[in-house]
Amino acid sequence: MKLYKYFTALCLSTIMVVPFCMAQTKTTSNDFSTSFSGRKWWKEAVIYQIYPRSFKDSDGDGVGDLKGIISKLDYIKSLGVDAVWLNPIYSSPNDDNGYDISDYRNIMKEFGTMEDFDAMLKGMHDRNIKLIMDLVVNHSSDEHEWFKQSRSSRSSPYRNYYHWWDAERGKPPYRYSLFDVNHDAWMYDSLTNAYYLHYFSRKQPDLNWENPKVRQEVFDIMRFWADKGIDGFRLDAFQFVAKDTTFPYFPKGFEKNFIQYYAMQGNLHGYLQEMNKEVLSKYDVMSVAEGAGNTFEDAHNLVDEDRHELNMAYAFEGVDIAKMEGYSLLHFKNVFSKWDSAFAEKGWLAIFLANHDQARLVSRFGNDSPAFREVSSKMLTTFILTMRGTSFYYNGDELGMANAGFEKIEDFRDVQTLNEYQYQKNTGGDLNKVMARIKFGSRDNSRTPFQWDNSANAGFTTSNPWIKVASNYKTINAAAQEKDTNSCLNYFRNLVKLRKEQLALVYGKYTLLDKGNPAVYAYTREWEGMKLLVLLNFTNKTARTKTGLNLASSTVLLDNYSNPSKNGVLKPFEAIIYEVH
Ligand code: GLC
């Protein structure tokens, strides 16, 4: 995971989907028993990420909840997705919207009850949708019973569940905190005259994984949820779990280098192997780590089947590219091609360009102006669903939802955004620049309520939402897009369907074409005699590509315009998928 991931937290209406019936093409079967041994449901799945706080409020308190999700299960099913990754729903004081857990075996009051959870899981399984839960165990909440006990006395049996530094030893060696208002990861606690470690906010103390009791507690929690029948775990911030607990000084000037000094340290792989042996191998669950280490070797070591650790790596180098001032497509192509080739023979990756920690997909990588929002959003969706790896798709992106772009700091809710602003204020930063950065890059941009329809508060809630609804909800909403066959929503559905029909899009060999083209991303995916070509224009201008393939004789399977090009000249943000003959 790149550190600046947190720093940045700072359809033209004529567009038409080419109906599939027009494109007579060979499709692949979903029968796992008759196929090659490498086939896995979690490789073929399109995983839809739901940010529960902002998805749908059922009880009018302004906060999304589980009953709200239940009421939208038919919508989720209609997308064609196979699994849902749900951001944390456990009891939490919500310093970091549920990433600060005070009880791992309970549901956050605002979200509902365990009965609601059971009903939601059943509702998903009845519809053949799997559920992946967020496992947040690098840290807990400071309101978790373990931490309350731990801080109560130096001799507490829970003392060693966290990292403490007794104050008589002097100030501990500096550690960087991502969310702390002073960016200092050591928080002094007068109760026992000691500092505790928190890489994230002060209310997220880091657990001590060197303590075998902590590991057993985590494995028990995992068994609790796996026994309920969930289908997978996403391991939050897991790279930071293992630390050198002698806490050496880092070289001056490098103390903030998360990549080098914080991620993938010590016995991380040992902990994962233990987790695999104790829990993962005993259930039919998939596992995906947030982050993929510092090198390809790190990433491979996480997911190499022979090592028995995790299934899938979720690498940040690609998603970290987009910047306020624009990005180079050549760089983008290079990064994704490099990761693909590193995993071509062994291991498996997640493919994504957005999640709850990033501003909106179309605002970061596309163009959210009225003229290009729809078409560029569809183009980016095409990328996510045609690359090798498991597609992770963030809720709202199927509508082409764009950055809310709040102008006032009072409108923001995210702990990281607010503390960064305060930090800059305290240290004399240029607040205009800071606000511009936050407006573009804050995580809150992707956390505004899901835009269901054009009624008050976008149909998300009947009262005041916990965070403002983006002002464009009257034009960008699901109800309007349901009626429009050319909408982003229906384009997404068609693309999901195509990915399910064409295993070449999942497993097929990836080959980059027209490598030096700064405007067009062109690649083929080949699998068992099927050759698909994807052309993506990443610019708002007409662009030409030379692939050396015969486009005239190829069949267009999908296009985000009504009249797909057959001569390699692409309209602004045009995306075309061909079957090459
Ligand atoms: C992960 C989550 C992020 C959270 C952080 C601390 O990066 O994705 O939302 O704030 O961990 O748990």
Automatic annotation (TrEMBL):
Domain Glycosyl hydrolase family 13 catalytic: 49-447
Gene Ontology molecular function: alpha-amylase activity
One annotated GO biological process: oligosaccharide catabolic process
UniProt record similarity statement: Belongs to the glycosyl hydrolase 13 family.
Name by which UniProt lists this protein: Alpha-glucosidase
Transmembrane segments: none
Gene3D superfamilies xref list: Glycosidases (3.20.20.80), Golgi alpha-mannosidase II (2.60.40.1180), Oligo-1,6-glucosidase, Domain 2 (3.90.400.10)
Superkingdom to which the source organism belongs: Bacteria
Keywords, in A-Z order: Glycosidase, Hydrolase, Signal
Cross-referenced PANTHER family: ALPHA-AMYLASE FAMILY MEMBER (PTHR10357), OLIGO-1,6-GLUCOSIDASE 1 (PTHR10357:SF184)
InterPro entries attached to this UniProt entry: GH, GH13_cat_dom, Glyco_hydro_b, O16G_dom_2
Signal peptide range: 1-23
